[in-house]
Design goal:
With 1265 residues, this protein is of the alpha+beta class. Helices cover 59% and strands 17% of the residues.
Amino acid sequence: MKKKNIIRIFILNIIITSLLYFIIENKWVVYRQAENAFIKKDYCLARSLYVKSLEKGLNPNYINKKIIDISNILGDYLTVEEEYKKILSENNYQLKLIISLANFYIGINQDEKALLLYKNEIDKDKDNLILKIKYAKVLSRNGYYDKAASLYEIVLENLKEDTRNVKKIDVMIFAAREYEYDKNFKDSKRVYLEILEKESKPSIQIELVNVYLQEKKYKDALDLLKKIHFSKIDDHTKLMLVNFYLYFDELNQAKIIYEKYLNHLNMHSRNIDEKVNLYISNNQNQNKLKDTFNTVFSSSDQVLLDLAKRYVKNKMDAEAIEVYEYLDKRDRKLNIELFKELALAYRYLKKYDKAIKLYEMLVQIKPSYQVKKMLALSKSANGDNKEALEMLLNLQALDNKDIVVLLEIARLYVRENNNIKAKELFDELLSSYPCNLNIKLEYANFEAIIGHPNTSKDLFLSLLYQTNFREDIFFRFATSLMASANFYKAEDIYLYLQNKEPDNANINLKLSFLLASQERYEEAKEILQKLIFEKKEIDASYRMLSDISLMQNDINQTLYFAKKAYEIDDNLENSLIYFKCLCINNELNLAIELFAKLEKQDKYKKICLFYIANFYANNNKKELAKDYYLQILKVDPNFIEAKFNLLKIENKLSDYENLLNEADNTIDLEKYGTLYSNLGHFKIAIKFYQKALQIDPNCFFAKLSLSQALASNQQYFRSLDILNSMNYNYFPNYKISLWIARVLSWAKYYDSSIFEYKNLLSFRKDDPVIIREMARVASWAKDTPLAEKIYAKELCPTISKILLENVIKSEEIENQKLLYDLFLLKEGGYVSYEVIKNNIDNYNLSKTEKTTLNEILINLSAKYEIQKSITLEKKAKKAFYEEKYLLSAQTYEELIKMHPYNLEALFDVAQNYCAMNLCNPSKKAYLKLLKFDSTHNLAKLAYDRVKIEAHPFLKLNYNYFQEEGRGDLDRIIQHRLDFLIGVPIKCSHILKASVSGYNDEPTFEKNTQIKNVDQLENIKYPSIGYNIYYDGILSPYIRTNAFFSQKFYLKKFRKTIEGGLNLNFNLQDFIKLNLSFNKKNKLDNIFSLQQRIQKSTWMLESISSIKRKIDIEAAIRYQNFSDNNNIQFLNIEVGYRLTSHPTMLKFNFLGEYRNSKKLNRFIFDGSDLINIIHPYWTPHNYNAYRVQLEWFHDIASPQICTNQKRYYDLKLFYGNDTEKNPTVRFDADVNIGFLNHYMFSLNGYIHRSKLWDAVGINAIFKYQF
């Protein structure tokens, strides 16, 4: 019987135990299974088991942290989120589950979801005070302090008495703090005072004192400090209390408190009174005392620890660090956890060097696996790659399943360009942990880095679909797209994220960098100026402004912004950029002072050494430079730039084979290729890119760089083949499309190029870079109307109208003078923006109005800069096209002053100066351009030509002239041979001297009546002479030339003297005036030779051009002859260009009027002609007209002003006159420059008319040294 009962009891016990197991204990069993899986790092299994235990009713507090850790390790938040939502629905939205899900969101940095969850639940349960408190805490975490405070006030209104979960005094403290964070000190004080009426706690009193200090209400702060027990405030605050008494002249109290302070520090001595008196006498300056009134701290370590943790929870890391560091300075033993918390805060604020120091100290105290891991991860984040990799590999040996460690090792392999090992490790990780999204994310990033954008894109899209388009993955996707130059897609993503998180400074910094990468510098800088105005990421913004200024080659601004960043925070990152900028600006002594701080870390040391070496190399101190480059290679043997620069300073860049052979990965090869390309060694660069493609035929970067190098080497069709193939495989891609358009324009396929630019504009219609480049191509194609139309895309609506609209919309600016000026200038293009910005202090604006106006101006700064630069460029291009070179140059100079980096403007202004023969400013502009871009082929060619043109030259000139007509009046054959030496002086002034040989041979009409003609025929009159010439450019507005000649006849006739002076005036390109005087021999026949006739000519000539199409020339000449005669000569010429350069077809109409004071008289002796008085043509009331057709073809290549001239010019005209003398004339001119130093020119004409025929030939050979 007993046995049966025992059996029954045993069976009953089993049944009850089983029931209890299934009812109660099952959740704990599952929880323990989850814990075991977590320990074994089987995170996918652990996650499912933790969720299962939650389904079975386990308190979420047990698993919250583990669930968050697993989700962060796996990079998969959606799985847990969906499970949570399912459990919430099944459990009727229990409060603890709502809070748990919100905490999960917070743990994975998705606070916006936590906010939305609480808001929705409060809408359902408006009386739930716990939900409101939790919601307020999340609001506070995200900076919504005013909303949090208002919510706490609502809780207080509804909280009649304390409950088990909610204490009224706690809520009041929460509210007071929120008001303080929000700088609403009035309400903060009100609530603190209410708290102190109920409970006079020193910690609360101290918080209120700090509010008074922020308000600078020092008397109130002192009065409250007096009430706090001396032992409850820390030593720093005790000393501050002494200073308060001194500040308010309460000297006795100051002495008492200072004595207590010294006694507290155990400084008992006989001379304590002396110390007190000395301190008081040394601290009488009120301003210095005020500087000591900062934060008051409690003497309790625990109170301060709680304060620091509160700051951490509230994402106020800078404040938390301040408290942690203050605790660290206290001379007492603290909990190791304090240092861990402080190190984590440093990591969050990216102060990795400080975090490393703490972790190194912790490793010495307690060398746990976790601390070593955090130290290795901090070193990796700090860029100490080799040390970090070594430590992580040691950790891997201890635990080869730690995904965080393995993933960081993979990242370091990528950073060190060890792509083979990185790929092997990624393959292993993906195989072992297929559900880990973080691994997939890093692998997608790896594929982007090594130049496989399509693979990377597919992986990212897969991850986005898996995670319901999670924003942090979207952010990484945009960064990967930016790496492969898919800028528009990346920009769309950043703008989408910016719209969702307008206060996220990191997104704005990335967007700014993206825009700068597209050369959209104005928009990039506007974003950074907004961040500075809003006091967000100020030092990072200045740092990036410095980088952008360097991209723009604005060296002064680069240094200015770097210094600003350094002054705000002298951390290593800011120190490094300041150091770099000092070196670039040749301020090495200041840079060396920073070097001592930076050289402690290898990654900074090698960069510093590199910039020091560059400084010495640029200043031609090659041995010092070489020494520093070798030092770099000791630190990092694979520092590509140092290896390259060593060859460069030794002039051995052509010995590239060793570099080519030792480089074994695409990234290094691509770097070498870029370095060679940057110096114009395109053929060598091509070899490096080709080897990179042999290693990885699909490498995007190598393909694109190869196509660019080919194009720069003028192998346009090979380049286009690669680009078109890439465009097919990677479409749409910004950079590929842009380079197709550029290469087509360089190959002079202008229409096709413009088509490609239009395709780019279809993706981003207001991209100023594309609009500028497309308009430039149209102007290169001489299609000025199209260029103007394209430029106009960015000029409508004008910035003046936009500014006016924004000011009116703001509703905060009511200043009538300002509004009146804006209305007055609304049609002024960009002018109103400048006027308002430059005169903002003259409008007597209120503080609110001024702040609002400044914000509007910053928000429109990019639009203003773009519109101004485009307006100036449009004006300058049009002026250049219309051959108004002075106006064009002046406009370009204004544009260059605004944008010193504008290479197009620098090249064009040089061309303008060249067209005006202003070689010095032309040379300076080319040189400046080449400093910015040493590979600019046209600038290089032009600069070399300008230098050659400044050299002396030799010229051999032969001239032949023959005329026959008007009886014996115009009958002569002339030969002239000149040997000339020219010496340019400072380029703008040229002195020339020549020796000449002449042969004048009068001829005679067939049936001439000249007496004794048989004795005169076939007689030649040789002569020799010398000539001195001066050509000078006095300014862009005035130029001059002068000459002096003497001619010595070897027989019969005496010497003659010739000379002249010419002044040219440029009246702002609207009209050019020439004023000249010259005196020359007038040799038309035997009688003019015998009489030594000379002609002195005064001339006033005007030349103007109307829109390049119509040329008008008019001249008045007064010709005074040595035989007391003169001729008045007026002429006008109107030309119309039917086509433009380089193939110009031009139609000219010429009209002239001549009138002689005296007509020629033929003197006869019987039937023999013995003399002619005024032996030259003397027209009387003579009118003539001609029509001319001209064909000019410039065959030079490239067709730039400084290039050697190669052209032919043909003219054919027909005319008639009042002498009824129909005339036909043909002119031809051929000019061929060759081999850079040589020129041959041949020109001549044939003139045929009823009364006068002539032939002229001129041949020139020139050599310039």
